[in-house]
Records
---
Amino acid sequence: MKKRIVTISLTIVLLILAGTIYYRYYFVFGDGTKAGTMNYFVHKGYMFKTYEGRLIQAGIRTPTQGSIQSNEFMFSVTDEKVADKLNKSAGAYIELHYKEYMHTLPWRGVSNFVVDSVISVHPYNPQQQ
């Protein structure tokens, strides 16, 4: 009887632990699209080489009166095909689809936002904005 209680308790603890890990690291908290000019895109890391990028969105956002701040979207990429497409699109106006996670994983990148597809790529034209 005592062995059965220990087994059930251990199973419950493991299920709670697995659910917590899934929710914190694998559950997609949100997804959406962002558009802007690709500022940079790099492949870096010590143990886990990840793709990291920065997108400059159109418009200026000022959180405090009298200051100017650019609206940047920092993201990571896990798919090699998406990374290759972005690597060839430096300086272009692009639209990206991303997934937002609660926390990062070392092999997924340093950002909570992970780009999973490129919707469109257009040559940058300053007169259009």
Note: Strands lie at 28-44, 50-61, 69-77, 93-101, 113-122.
---
Amino acid sequence: MRPGSLDDRLQELAERAGVPYIDGMKVTSHGWRAGANTDMIAASVPLAERNIAGRWASGSHTADTVYGRQHGLGTRDPLVSVPLYGGPARAMVAGARAGA
């Protein structure tokens, strides 16, 4: 795989899904790291543990300054149209999060 292949593929899929941008930011593979880190922030995971999970240097604040991306999707959630997450799966995830 050449450098950038993952981003190219992900951006093509985002274009097809009609969401090449979320909150004004182009969809990239870095968003996967940001999403995981943002979820950990919401779950109150300490920075030191997030650094380990994200493979950032010990003592680094990159997880907070670059990869902490709270975003507001407004009334349109682009993941609703994704079969693995949208529809019934989305309701199951929402129910599990509410019970946590």
Note: The CA atoms of residues 74 and 97 lie 19 Å apart.
---
Amino acid sequence: MSNDRYEKGIKKIQEFTVSHDAKNPTGEMEIGEAFKDIAPDLSKYVVEFAFGDIYSRPGLDNKQKVLTTISSLVSQGMPQIEIHINSGLNVGLTPEEIVGCIVHLLPYTGFPRVLNALKVAQKIFDERGINIQKSNN
């Protein structure tokens, strides 16, 4: 059963990444491989639980799942937001939707976290050559 959860998780991760292949099945998605020496099971937990169980649940499409994840990471001030902004673009979120989500969090999370998240988004958009439509609001 566990192997099925792992394979299901890998397939779900691949829906969010563009640079995956046989040698690197999770692409740019960090699943904890850097901690193999101190937490050898961490990658398995990330793949099986987070992606095999949670991300694979019905009810939300991939865009909604990424927006929910971005919202949570902005509110926590977590650096993993970079991975998820990229995955949002990979599943079809527009830069305007991502920025709109982040700015919408301003009254709930505060200026520092929103500004930090926008800096990350701006960096990713620049790296990917993405221009964002300016809002008048």
Note: The chain has two domains: 2-54, 62-127.
---
Amino acid sequence: MKHKEENKNCRTWAAWLILTVGLGLLALLMAFSITKGSVPIPIQTVWEAFCHFDAENTRHLIVIDARLPRVVASALVGAAFAVAGSIMQGMTRNPMADSGLLGLNAGAGFALSVCFAFFPTMNYHQLILFSFLGAAFGAGIVNGVASLPRGGASPMRLVLAGAAVSALLTAISQGIALYFGVAQNIMFWTVGGVAGSNWEQIRIITPWILGALMGAVVLSRSVSLLSLGEEVAKGLGLNTLVINVLCSLVVLILAGASVSVVGAVGFIGLMVPHLARFLVGVDYRLIIPSSAVLGAILVVLADLGTRTLNPPFEVPIGALIALVGVPFFLVLARRQRRAF
């Protein structure tokens, strides 16, 4: 009993360490990231742009209007994807759950391609709404396909169905883009990136993402109970139907808003929750906030890498994250097969 209590205290301290040190590291990385790019900018100039902005100074304009929006968008999107993956893994008890692997990202991308082709005059608010609907559409198809065989939707069936549905929706999206001449517009969302982020987008998505992150923290205790199994959760007095609906709504908001900015970037919601779980244990009251910080750090680092690996050109952020995400997925899949 004493050992369990000590272990719990250690996990709590680890979570607080991630939140405090991690947030400080995130701030430093964001500041450093602003200085890097095709035009290197000294940190002193960055500080001057914040304190004494001069609209006639080209470097000040680059800092405020180009680089600062993209690092802020990177942090928001990283936190959103990571928390979405955490909730999905907890509520489904599927360690391979991720918005990219289970069709949400591809569904949101499909909805965006339809908007560009048939409703080109849509504003950004409407695009985000369609991203939510597209994410729900993709997730619904994946769950439906995975549930068709006898025995229901096992974790491996969900992943296989997600891969097939994602490939189908991506192919349809590209076909629509080519046929209606909007391939250049949709290509950015296909490869993923934050280069086109601007203050208008951030102003719109920030309330959605922050509200959903707060909702995830509120639901974290219930997610911990769901991760023990639906029957156990019901036995402990949890209304599993309501919690599942609320968790699904939070995931759709986080994934839909993120895809509308950065595109269909996968593996963030797969890798980060596992890292958080390794550091802070199985309590989602600790996993969810830790995942938010670690996810933000990961995407800010990835965005920094896209600008520094092959200057003055940029590497797609989705491809860079996939270099780590694909081996991680293969190792995890092998472990799951052995366990099965």
Note: DSSP finds 13 helices and no strands in the chain.
